[in-house]
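Could someone model fe (ii) ion with this protein?
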Amino acid sequence: MSNIWEQFKSIFGGLSNGPSNPVLNPRKFRMSRPVPMGRHWMNNDPVATAFFNSLSISFPHAEVYMIDSLKPWREHVSEAMREEINAFIQQELNHSREHIAFNRGMIEAGYEFKSVEKDILNLVKELNMRSDLDRLQMTMCMEHLTAVISSELLSDENHLAGAETELNQMWLWHATEEIEHKAVAYNVWLEATKDWSSLRRWVSRSVFFTVITYRFFSNRLRAQIYLLQQDGYSKRAAFFAMMRYGLKKGGLLRKLARPWAAFYKVNFHPWSVDDRHLIAAGDSQFIMGGSVEEIFDKFIETDKTSDKKDNIAA
Ligand SMILES: [Fe+2]
Ligand SMILES: [Fe+2]
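Reply:
Sure, complex below.
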């Protein structure tokens, strides 16, 4: 029996101890004000529009929660990690600002979502009652969800095809920075749990990830149905329309299944999947504060660092 237990424990022996992130670059991006937005800004499709709108409603609240969950750890980590947390906070603040403006655009376009926001605020209140470590673990799990969605958005242009230009750029900008900072919370968590056994770490993050995934997708689906009802859909029709949209061949949710599940691997680290090329690709697709030369330099820099891949992958 003890032999089996020893073998079981050995499976968890090879966990990553915290590879480094790419340098975080909070970009200057800002949409026009008021945000120009047609009611069905996403390819004239109410279902696809509801998918992105429901995400946007949650972002300003979720991002403030994630910022607050990382702040207490700045006192307990190295100077380098503290700088990464600060850059992470700056990026999330910028996202939050643009999504608040985006959400105002939704109201201008005729949508109402006060009850959806109230549910999110209640959830955030509930999560904030947990310990600093629990809050950090939840943020780490949410960051994996946003990272895999972002990676898919940047990998397959079909997902945002037909979106109004400035809104398209905003989603690409946000996705780019989500990939760039995808490991910050994870690395802080590795530091915070450095005295834990690998098995304990795996069990803990798996349990948190399962709960966070369930709540994230069920709450977003509820919000999507609520928005589609305002476009004349019945609850039932809205549910099946969203299922078809997400799970059809090439659908976003269908394609997310495998990268989502990677979080359960015993040796998982966000940079086990090296998608840094998407950061440069994302930068080239939206207008950022820098010049063409700066964008070009960024490509060169990414090239130069590609031989560090083995060091970065877990
Ligand atoms: Fe964000
Ligand atoms: Fe993020």
